[in-house]
Amino acid sequence: MPIALFNYIIQNSNGSSFTRVPVDAVKAFIESFILLPSDKITGECLAFNDGIPTIAFLTGENDFIEVTGEGGLYRIQSAWLSCRVLENVKIKASCSKEPVLIIRFNPIAFHRIFNLNAKALCYQYAWELDQLGEDFKALCQIVLTTKCIEDKIRKIEHFMLELDRNTWPRNFVFEEAISYIMREKGKVSIQTMLSSLKVNYKWLERSFSNYIGISPKEFARLQRFINAYSDLVTSKGEDLLMIAIDNGYYDQTHFTKEFKRITGKSPMEYLKSGN
């Protein structure tokens, strides 16, 4: 996904006209709908994923994205899914003026309802929905053949309710673990969290592996980075040391090393490049 999406989520955490809360009946498996303005992703930008299964729908007939990195180039039209950790990966979009429709899913529900393997989804930067089975093809068709955004969302909710056949058990402890890490912006002691949730590390690690495809420490690392990234672009890099400390890094060097690992550039190089 374009990193602008996650910065947009953080900057609008209190809600905005571009965020839609799903109806109560589907809140167990859809976290939110987001209408990302197309100007946020036009051209080439950094790609990122925070570990939460996310689908994006382009609305124009000729819209497309290209995702490039060491793993090759993926050209996708219409809609795509992103799950894996992305480091030094770029996304280039050519899209109409209509906003990109984003769906953020509950990880457990997503993989159970669609019968997907979280680890297997980590093998590619992005997946075109047509690659993932008939349910995704049907979902894509609904979005592409419906004009009004509000109607698209309503039909998606209905579609998900039809798919949910009560075949997946809620895992409230794991859901709380995800919420806790995100609420704390990745600045967590895993040991403290284990004590609070009254679970052992092997159970937590297995749950993250099964439902997200990465370890809890890696998930926390991604949350810490994206919040630091948001602070960086908002402040235009005015105080790198303060950004580093505020977001749980040991010092500026630690933050710079992590930033370069994910973006391929130092913080100031990234800001100067505009990308």
TrEMBL record:
Query: Has the keyword DNA-binding been applied to this entry?
Result: yes
Against PROSITE patterns, the record matches this protein to: HTH_ARAC_FAMILY_2
Which keywords, in A-to-Z order, does the entry hold? Answer: DNA-binding, Transcription, Transcription regulation
- Domain HTH araC/xylS-type spans what residues? 175-273
- Superkingdom assignment: Bacteria
GO MF terms on file?
DNA-binding transcription factor activity; sequence-specific DNA binding
InterPro entries of this UniProt entry?
A: AraC_XylS_family_regulators, Homeodomain-like_sf, HTH_AraC
- Does the record's keyword annotation contain Cytoplasm? no
Listed name of the protein: Transcriptional regulator, AraC family
